[in-house]
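Feature request disguised as a bug: please show the residue count (301) next to undecaprenyl-diphosphate phosphatase in the output. Example input:
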Amino acid sequence: MPEILHDLSWVLPLRHDWLTPLMHGFTQLGYEKFILFFLPLGYWAWNKPLFLRLFLLVAFTAVFNAFCKDLWQDPRPALDYRMDHEVGQSFGLPSGHAQIAVVLWLWLAYELRQRWMWLLSGVVVSGIIFSRLYLGAHDLEDVLGGALLGALTLLGFALVQPLRWWREANAFWHLGLIVLLALGFQLAWQGTAPHYVPLLAAMLVGVLLGYRLEGRWLDSHAQVSTWRRLLAAALGAGAFLLLQVALKALADLWPLQDWLWQVVRGLIMGLFVAALMPWVLVRLQLLGARASRPLASEVLE
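Example output, currently without the count:
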């Protein structure tokens, strides 16, 4: 049984010129660039409360995954199998792609409760997990471990979410909990935490602060025509890309220690996603605005 979990020799006969680009495509859906692009688009133009919850879930499970990787220090498959060279020197167990895919796509399907979404999510999750094996970035033990931790994350959130104290807690209690968890991970980390740990923690703080501020100003929501939502998504995507260029230039002009820069970058990105861009899209009449801010229970339920 252990040999099955670590042996990737069965993958080699499956590799074909037509299949390899498809597997690279699936695997890109699990990388930071896609996730940090997809979540803001959904927040602006699809369902703000749902994607706020997804921000919480994905940020937590990504940090939890990196913590387990450095704690267990399980090596990846041999380089002879490797077709994905973006993994660097990170460890294998648990697979971040598998864990985040389960959390992101299955929670989306769970919330929407539509058959087509379950089908789409199942295809995407299966494709991402198989792509990690196909590209030699993980073995079977890695992806099974990642999928299991992702499922446990979903189960934990599903149990906590209905609790009244969680739904009705002041936003600052949620912010405090995020900061405490981030500090706890940082202090207990085996070695040096990856750059995206302070980035995600700070971005999540920025998103929650931005949500609170924006809710007081105008409370944007996506109950508008489809073409307005699509245009809002397109403009938001372009603005988000420009923000990354501006942040890169700022990093060159304002050199800071890496962890501190990631905190600054994360806060700016979070406030941009949850406060500045919704305000711009409402002013352009691409998103509507309600007169009153929704109750916390509407967001966290």
